[in-house]
Amino acid sequence: MLGKTGITLLFSTHVDIARFQNKIELNVNELLNSIDKYDGYSLTRGVCGLALLISYLQEKSRIEDDASVLLNEVDEIVLHGLKSDISIHFFDYLHGYLGIINYLIRRKHQIINDDFILQSILKLLTFLEEDSKYPFDYSVQDTKYVANFGLAHGIPSFLSMLININKIIKSTDVDNYIRRLTLFIFSKKQHLPHIKSKYPHCLPKEDMPYLEGRLAWCYGDLGINITLLKSARYLKDELLEKEILQDLIYCANRKSFKDTAIMDCCFCHGAAGVSYIYKQLYRIYKINEFHENYSFWQDFIQDRYNEYGLDGLKTYYGKEGWVLEKGLLEGIAGVYISLYPDEVDQDLINYLFLIDF
Description:
Elements: H1 3-13, H2 21-33, H3 47-59, H4 68-87, H5 97-111, H6 114-130, E1 138-140, E2 143-145, E3 147-148, H7 155-169, H8 172-186, E4 202-203, H9 221-235, H10 238-252, H11 257-260, H12 271-285, H13 288-308, E5 315-316, E6 322-323, H14 332-339, H15 346-352
Antiparallel strand pairs: 1-2, 3-4, 5-6
């Protein structure tokens, strides 16, 4: 989802594919020629992201040559990465096990059977049963918290993946885990004075400070509530769905930097992700606050661009300062899909970002 892979995926999902065909072919060839330089196997930085791009191009008949042999070879590399991440308990969605599984679900009918997915996920569930705490360790400023609570890296992504998996394997046992994990996440909602977020950035151990969550796709109430909404709709729990919608309305009214920590335009932790998610919500529920929110953040992006040009779309990296990125996750490709969602394959984008509620 980063760099050339991310922006090529944007071109590949565009409704006017002919406009980008030459660029897509050029980029894919360059990416394949540098496959040995990839940083691991992950969906974000590794071979899995390239595999997703190629499989999508083949699926939509947007690649001239038969890519089956190539995909089988790349899938072998991806499967090796999956086994490696399982062995070291690396469950991160963007960088580890869960992202690879999400790719394999899309490829499931071509390279793996249901039993493979089931055995992989049951192995993960075993860790959850054996450990009194959930195995998503997370450090903040050298302080060890119990678990990462963000959609991009932590427990909500696991719940979202369980739902995606069980739509295929239809296991009663996994359904029970979905209910339990939904209730576990929901139980962590708090109403603390002078703190806008209802869910923590990560779960603290006893006697550790509450770490307030931001408002973004990657961390905080928005990503968590989208996951809970997905679960409520999957479980057909109307009461939970109504309560989550109220929490999403509450989130929609958080707009200042103090209340959101949003300072740039990227999809991951900036205005583009929030705007895109609320537009998806508005299409389904027609709630005015959702419309107002996505319009607010689209104006935020447009104002940045009008005042600073492309510099206004740079992503902020703390000590590294402002960087102009190109990819879907942290760059201008992600900003584009937020501003012009009707020009891209929203089903793929929603699936990729786990907002397929």
